[in-house]
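User: Before I run my own analysis I want an independent prediction to cross-check against. Here's the chain; please return only the structure tokens and, at the end, one sentence I can use as a sanity check.
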Amino acid sequence: MIIVLGDLLADLSLRIESFPVQAGGMQRVSYFELGPGGAANTAIAAARLGLSVGHLGEIGDDRAGRWILDDLRAEGIDVSGVIASAQATTAVAGVIVDAHGEPAYLGFPGRQYLPSLPAEWAERIQKAEALFVDGWVDHTRQADLILEGLQGARTSGVPSFFDPGPGNPALDNAWHAAACRRATVVLATEDEAQRISGRSDPLESAKAILALGPELVVIKRGVAGCFLVRQDEVYLAGGYPVDALDTTGAGDSLDAAVIDGFLRRLPLPALGTLANAVGAAKVQKLGTGRNVPTRDEVRAVLQRFGVDEDRLLRG
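Assistant: Structure tokens:
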């Protein structure tokens, strides 16, 4: 089972015609949905690619938390380890997307109380096929919990995947470098890699992160695709030109493809192709959570661009 740890929140997704949204003004919303967001995007995308997935995290015993759990269960994801606390409040992200598919975010951090990684979670991580975590946290103890999870996976020989994300400007994100040292695979945008490495050149920043300890670094480049870097190999995987309705969750969906392909030991060209196809399938859909791409939608992208999907997708 793939374990997804933390960043368990709800996305309130809205689509508007254009920015800015101004006080006193009125814009019609053409799309509205409330459902799982954050790392749950990766969990759902991985499950739809055919992986067995469990999610661990802390939520409030509230409506947003119940919506998240209901939707994750509907996707076949094991949420038996999620802690719903009357003291906690579920985090919610407001995702506002314009007609060009570009999002803006409003974040309600909620409240969480776990002081450290519960023993039950540590045991699940030790027995997992892989661990996925991301770097968006609203409280310092959440960062510590993620580092504990990554260290437990490393000690147990469990491959781990870390997506630093943009980082929280309200916190010191130096812990992202510590997470990279513990992770097997790091997945970052060019800007995120530059922030962690201090290098302006994307390839040099990837190599600097690789020197911290991971086995593979994947740099996500949006419509341009991605490139994948190992100690002895660099591969540039070109993106697929599709009409983008909503880029939200595309990187999270790509992460799921990398987990799937890495565990199946796909060579870098095939891994990059699968990752880009999943990202391209996502941007053609509105919303996040249960609106990440299905396997058939990924298959349609691969077929459209003449790629043999049977060698990339699970049966």
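Sanity check: The CA atoms of residues 194 and 200 lie 6 Å apart.
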